[in-house]
Amino acid sequence: MQARLIRKVLLLLVPGLIAWPWLTQEDAGAWGFFGHKRINRMACFTLPPAMFGFYKRHIDFISDHAVDPDRRRYSDPREAPRHYIDIDHYVKGAASEAQSDDPFWEVPPEWNKAVQKYTEDTLQAYGIVPWHIQVVYNRLINAFQRGDVDRILYYSADLGHYIADAHVPLHTTENYNGQMTNQVGIHAFWESRIPELSADAEYDHLVGRATYIDDPLTAAWNAVRASHAAVDSVLGFERALNERYPDDRKYVFEDRGRGALRFPSQEFTRAYEDAMGGMVERRMNASIITLGGFWYSAWVNAGQPDLDRFEQREVSDSLKKVLAAEEEQLKMAREAMGRPEPNE
Ligand SMILES: [Zn+2]
Fold first, then answer.
1. CA of 259 to the centre of ligand 1 (A)
2. What is the distance in A from the centroid of ligand 1 to the CA of 31?
3. Which candidate, 206, 166, 160, 194, places its Cα nearest to that of 36?
4. Is the Cα dihedral 230, 231, 236, 238 positive or negative?
5. pLDDT tens digits for 47-70?
């Protein structure tokens, strides 16, 4: 179990660095820099007028710090499991007398009940994203109540990250990088390469207004459930296309400052997206509207404080220090491992 967790930490270690499939699993990362930043940014535009001014003022912070939780993995061993849940682990060898084959039936949605059934160690080993979303959501409510601008921004950005991760199908399966089906690299292909190639030119993120979320834990589980329902398509369509495409049409070489690396070609990427019927765009948009809903609900539950009257308009020096220290730890960890900065 320990080795498995270490492998997973390594897989998700360098977010946004897209290299497929020559670089190993270590280089995949959730939604990449591009996708995470885009989701946090666009979610600001779903907010009602009473919130929009505040979020607009801080939109660069909220978007720039969308990837901080991935960076924290370097320095905090507790961080990695917050980004995924290998829900299919819980129905391994299913169809036995005592167990159904529906993991969402097997795993109790409430943390305490899940701990009772499986132990906390097991939950941590296979990922805790839906529960962690609830934790960060509650911290955000608290920050709104205290009028703590730094913490509002910090948790708003963090919440965006975990909600976006919960919307990625491959964050809900043990076969998170296609390693069980000979499709290593599909993780970064789906969540980094596709948005990078397509989102600017083609995606439409007009997702409407954020709505109030009664039950955040259920909303988090719904995101995971919808993601997991798409896992078969994510893997199956790639496998089918792979058989039809010769290598010279499937790959291109691009120079990302470390010599030429092999990436899925525009043509192959397009064919994959078409096969999936625009799934990446839909999951991205679902992340955006869900995130807006979480921010909005946290603010409502905090008593709808007047955000425009919070005196402090900028991020404080103390938060800057915290962030700078995280950055420093990240650098040291990278240096210790002999890894370069990823492309952003
Ligand atoms: Zn993540």
1. 27
2. 8
3. 160
4. positive
5. 999 999 999 999 999 999 999 999
